[in-house]
Amino acid sequence: MRQILIKNAYIVSMNAKREIFNNGSILIENDRIKEIGKIDEKSLLADVEVLDAKGKIVLPGFVNTHVHLSQQLGRGIADDVDLLTWLRERVWPYESSFDYESSLISSTACCVEMIKSGVTTFLESGGQYVDAMVEAVKTTGIRAALSKSVMDEGVGLPENWIKTADEEIATQKDLYDRFNNTADGRVRIWFGLRTIFNNSDELILKTKKIADELNTGIHMHIAEIAAENDYVKANRGDSTVEHLHKLGALGPNLLAVHTVWLTDREIDLFRLYDVKVSHNPAAAMKVVLGFARIPEMLEKGLNVSIGTDGAPSNNRMDMMREMYLTSLIHKGRTLNPKAVPAEQVLEMATVHGAKCALLEKEIGSLEVGKKADLIVLNPNTLHSLPLHDPIANIVYTMSSENVESTMCNGQWLMKNREILVLDEAELIEKLKEKAAEIKKKAKIELPNRFPVVDII
Description:
The chain has helices at residues 83-95, 100-116, 130-140, 165-179, 201-214, 226-236, 240-247, 264-273, 281-286, 294-299, 319-334, 342-349, 351-356, 390-396, 424-441; strands spanning 3-12, 20-29, 32-37, 49-52, 57-60, 62-67, 119-124, 143-146, 187-189, 191-193, 218-222, 254-258, 276-279, 304-306, 374-377, 403-408, 411-415, 418-419. With 456 residues, it is of the alpha/beta class.
């Protein structure tokens, strides 16, 4: 039996009462929380590992509900372009040039970046080498729900991605059978639907059926751009959400990503069917999707979480930054200073994220019996002090620099800013080499923004 005691901390539990334990302690036994608040010293083993967190903040690890592991090597290849150019001329050619090793390096680097910003669980929306993603998750110690990028129709698809609905379902079922609930339970396999531009009704219906049978999730970009609704109306008779409703595809295991272009009725449909939402503020602004109506969704009781999206559409896998943006942009849009306050943002990044991951009984809050997924924040930086209102400071002043330690499943992944699960310097060199190789293979040429003078 292995024990870790974190003591003298400001513990933001995010439990049902939202209790904060000032000068509190957490006793971790193997992969779960055994005690929290005041610890009975009789519970401690002689060889318990002790971390004195005096002056520091402990809270649940963040849940990043939308990320593309395979896009990590593509950071910077699609800046300042519209979404369809971004997708068809930059990202798809790039990703379709991948092999297993490329995906493994990209996935591993993305996991490490998330660990350094306090993420302990993430939901991957789809790549082509899910087995490489599984290996990356196993190596880095993080928790994840992984999906294949699933497409059976659409304009501009790379030739090696063109599959039938039955082929896509069979591939995903095989992935589920091989990898679901592996890596000490940290890996879950979900079913993916890329977008309605690329998913036939047949594929949507078969995906819904098998995901329900296997009691797993479905990850899909929904109502991302205005042109999406126009396309669906022209080709299938209604908007994306209304069409999914008519197909019977809405349900509590559906994670709808972006959801920028929803009507009041569609928000009500999401609430009726308990559809989960992933809000990606940086990506929505950078790729010019628009402003999702997050305050309205929260007011109606939707379970809204936060995601970063991938490196080419956000450029930073930084949940601390996403929390900050989530609060600011909705205050600006609604002209309401109370829109999405700091405590609600923190809920979105923790307990709401856990519900979106279908893991609310296991993670999302620090409670006895739950998994030991947590982070330690060190507020002792000039940009974070003074600490008059700790919850507000977490959202409004802190950055990933303040994430001192990250634990998942009772294991330290990062401690005192040092990644413990692999050699970070070695990974960085592999990333640089492979990124250049893939860019050349994909034949992506980026113009210089300023004149470059090569000095020989």
